[in-house]
């Protein structure tokens, strides 16, 4: 059974929960820990993960990167992750990391990028299961018509993140 060490921190989008093996991160979720207990329990059972141990100060590099991201000083994350999912899901999640900061792609763009234009629905399902919010930027995926589509943490959070990135991107160009 894989270990699960968890910590939380406050951010401009509220509480963020990080879980991993103590070194590498399995998931990053927004919300209060109590609101995620059911999700964590199902996720643990699916991936053969031990009972969580709460560790204050864990994942300091990831937390530092998130804080720099929210301050507009970081546009690409580098903390270590361990992606637990199907090979197709991992392929989609890796493709999400290719979306440039401050830009949006459509589900169709993702399907084209993985070489399977007919997999739009499967791509949507994989994006919905993205375990590492913000750092694997599923918030950058929009509908073909430019509309904001579902986001596990809510459309208000998605709007906030997209606005944050476009405002930060503008600022980065102004100061370069």
TrEMBL record:
<feature type="active site" description="Nucleophile; methyl group acceptor">
    <location>
        <position position="138"/>
    </location>
</feature>
<keyword id="KW-0489">Methyltransferase</keyword>
<protein>
    <recommendedName>
        <fullName>Methylated-DNA--protein-cysteine methyltransferase</fullName>
        <ecNumber>2.1.1.63</ecNumber>
    </recommendedName>
</protein>
<dbReference type="InterPro" id="IPR036388">
    <property type="entry name" value="WH-like_DNA-bd_sf"/>
</dbReference>
<dbReference type="GO" id="GO:0032259">
    <property type="term" value="P:methylation"/>
</dbReference>
<dbReference type="InterPro" id="IPR008332">
    <property type="entry name" value="MethylG_MeTrfase_N"/>
</dbReference>
<dbReference type="GO" id="GO:0003908">
    <property type="term" value="F:methylated-DNA-[protein]-cysteine S-methyltransferase activity"/>
</dbReference>
<comment type="function">
    <text>Involved in the cellular defense against the biological effects of O6-methylguanine (O6-MeG) and O4-methylthymine (O4-MeT) in DNA. Repairs the methylated nucleobase in DNA by stoichiometrically transferring the methyl group to a cysteine residue in the enzyme. This is a suicide reaction: the enzyme is irreversibly inactivated.</text>
</comment>
<keyword id="KW-0234">DNA repair</keyword>
<keyword id="KW-0227">DNA damage</keyword>
<dbReference type="InterPro" id="IPR001497">
    <property type="entry name" value="MethylDNA_cys_MeTrfase_AS"/>
</dbReference>
<dbReference type="Pfam" id="PF02870">
    <property type="entry name" value="Methyltransf_1N"/>
</dbReference>
<dbReference type="InterPro" id="IPR036631">
    <property type="entry name" value="MGMT_N_sf"/>
</dbReference>
<feature type="domain" description="Methylguanine DNA methyltransferase ribonuclease-like">
    <location>
        <begin position="5"/>
        <end position="81"/>
    </location>
</feature>
<keyword id="KW-0808">Transferase</keyword>
<dbReference type="Pfam" id="PF01035">
    <property type="entry name" value="DNA_binding_1"/>
</dbReference>
<comment type="similarity">
    <text>Belongs to the MGMT family.</text>
</comment>
<dbReference type="InterPro" id="IPR023546">
    <property type="entry name" value="MGMT"/>
</dbReference>
<keyword id="KW-0963">Cytoplasm</keyword>
<dbReference type="InterPro" id="IPR014048">
    <property type="entry name" value="MethylDNA_cys_MeTrfase_DNA-bd"/>
</dbReference>
<feature type="domain" description="Methylated-DNA-[protein]-cysteine S-methyltransferase DNA binding">
    <location>
        <begin position="87"/>
        <end position="166"/>
    </location>
</feature>
<dbReference type="InterPro" id="IPR036217">
    <property type="entry name" value="MethylDNA_cys_MeTrfase_DNAb"/>
</dbReference>
